[in-house]
Prior knowledge:
2 strands
Amino acid sequence: MNRRIPVLVAALLLVGGGLAYWLTRPSSQPKQLVLYGNVDLREVDVAFNGSERVVAVLVREGDAVHKGEVLAKLDTSRLAPQVALAAAQ
């Protein structure tokens, strides 16, 4: 019985140390939430004043975009006479 006490104490210390390490170890997972999925849009309202044609699409489906990034460019050649008229006045 005398020999069991040190073995029991050592086992408890090992279990306690392992538990303490498990609860206080730094997390290897990033703090950032990353979600994957698809956004399916067929029609969107854009902030254009007219119905100009799209000249260039600068991003493709699946590309990461940021707020304020230019996604497409419009053909503004129809507006050139109006700009010239406003500049002349």
